[in-house]
Amino acid sequence: MTSTETLAAEQQSAPLELAVIVGSVRDGRVGPTVARWFADEARTHGGFHVDVIDLLDYPLPLVIPAPGQFADPETTRIHEALAARIAAADAYVIVTPEYNHTLPAALKNTVDWVYAEWAAKPVGFVSYGGMSGGLRAVEHLRHIVAELHGVTVRESLSFHQVWEAFDGDLPRDREGSAAAAKGMLDRLVWWGRTLRAARLDRPYER
Question: Does pTM surpass 0.85?
Answer without folding.
Answer: yes
